[in-house]
């Protein structure tokens, strides 16, 4: 069976020809989670934007991007719009990247459904509200009528997850979706996302600078640095037998955090609550 997403020799250059992502190849297998792990500026977001057909103007891309064996390189803008939302759901870091500030949440969810599915607005409203309850939002009727700025950070992140999963896409791309949240809310949202992805049997590309999050979520981890994929493999292998010195450094940091010794992160992050959950899971 073809991989959910397959990237072959992806390179992205800026207008001066400087490589921002260099010859990166990886596969996201169906029903699995692949974490792209790397420090700021390593090329993770550009990689995800390339997969979504949303690279900023002025950047040059080469290589192949396949979605279930379909070559995405040759798609028109119109074809891309059909794929985003329906086949690939996206969860961004900040609500303002996905949610319109002056349209109520319920209408945004309904409009997304109506632009892809032949259903009535009444049916779309019912399904949207059901999805909001699936992400454990309380008082869904109230959330449907609310604007994004009236909700907390954690609630907005749940709404974005609802929006990304609404059309049951085969693939979800989540780019640092919780790094703007406090650690407790982060743990709740990550565990919700993990649970839904498994329950709905989706494939997820999760982008993070946080090795604790990658260890918690990933089946496979790809480590990026300065635009290069320096190492990739099963999460167990990467975390247990890292080959590259940079990955070893990240793993030492992870061990210190799991043992509660703190220590400076090579790429500064503090997922204490998620780490506590992971530790709990490991010790059960
Ligand atoms: N539109 C652009 N034009 C030129 N260079 C860019 C553009 N967007 C990103 N870059 C550069 O490409 C490199 C990779 O950026 P990218 O956003 O993919 O990194 P990242 O790993 O996602 O980091 P972060 O976690 O900080 O977002 C960086 O050096 C960045 O400055």
UniProtKB/TrEMBL annotation:
<comment type="similarity">
    <text>Belongs to the ABC transporter superfamily.</text>
</comment>
<dbReference type="InterPro" id="IPR050388">
    <property type="entry name" value="ABC_Ni/Peptide_Import"/>
</dbReference>
<dbReference type="Pfam" id="PF00005">
    <property type="entry name" value="ABC_tran"/>
</dbReference>
<keyword id="KW-0813">Transport</keyword>
<feature type="compositionally biased region" description="Polar residues">
    <location>
        <begin position="266"/>
        <end position="276"/>
    </location>
</feature>
<dbReference type="GO" id="GO:0005524">
    <property type="term" value="F:ATP binding"/>
</dbReference>
<dbReference type="InterPro" id="IPR003593">
    <property type="entry name" value="AAA+_ATPase"/>
</dbReference>
<keyword id="KW-1003">Cell membrane</keyword>
<keyword id="KW-0067">ATP-binding</keyword>
<feature type="region of interest" description="Disordered">
    <location>
        <begin position="260"/>
        <end position="284"/>
    </location>
</feature>
<protein>
    <submittedName>
        <fullName>ABC transporter ATP-binding protein</fullName>
    </submittedName>
</protein>
<keyword id="KW-0547">Nucleotide-binding</keyword>
<dbReference type="InterPro" id="IPR003439">
    <property type="entry name" value="ABC_transporter-like_ATP-bd"/>
</dbReference>
<feature type="domain" description="ABC transporter">
    <location>
        <begin position="5"/>
        <end position="251"/>
    </location>
</feature>
<keyword id="KW-0472">Membrane</keyword>
<dbReference type="InterPro" id="IPR027417">
    <property type="entry name" value="P-loop_NTPase"/>
</dbReference>
């Amino acid at each position: 069976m073809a991989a959910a997403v397959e990237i072959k020799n992806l390179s992205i250059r800026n207008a001066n020809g400087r490589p921002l992502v260099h010859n990166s190849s990886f596969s996201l297998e169906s029903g699995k989670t692949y974490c792209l792990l790397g420090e700021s500026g390593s090329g993770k977001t550009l990689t995800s934007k390339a997969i979504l057909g949303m690279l900023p103007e002025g950047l040059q891309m080469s290589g192949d991007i396949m979605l279930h064996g379909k070559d995405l390189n040759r798609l028109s803008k119109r074809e891309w719009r059909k794929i985003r939302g329906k086949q690939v759901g996206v969860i961004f870091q900040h609500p303002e990247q996905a949610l319109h500030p002056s349209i109520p949440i319920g209408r945004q969810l309904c409009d997304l459904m109506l632009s892809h599915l032949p259903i009535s607005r009444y049916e779309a409203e019912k399904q949207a509200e059901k999805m909001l309850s699936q992400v454990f939002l309380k008082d869904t009727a109230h959330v449907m009528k609310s604007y994004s700025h009236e909700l907390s950070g954690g609630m907005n992140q749940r709404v974005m997850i609802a929006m990304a999963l609404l059309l049951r896409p085969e693939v979800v791309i989540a780019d640092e979706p919780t790094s703007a949240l406090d650690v407790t809310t982060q743990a709740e949202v990550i565990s919700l996302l993990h649970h839904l992805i498994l329950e709905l049997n989706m494939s997820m590309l999760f982008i993070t600078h946080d090795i604790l999050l990658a260890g918690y979520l990933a089946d496979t981890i790809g480590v990026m640095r300065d635009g290069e994929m320096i190492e990739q493999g099963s999460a167990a292998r990467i975390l247990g037998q890292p080959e590259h010195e940079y990955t070893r450094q990240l793993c030492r940091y992870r061990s210190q955090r799991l043992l509660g010794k703190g220590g400076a992160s090579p790429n500064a992050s503090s997922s204490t609550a998620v780490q506590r959950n992971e530790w709990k899971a490991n010790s059960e």
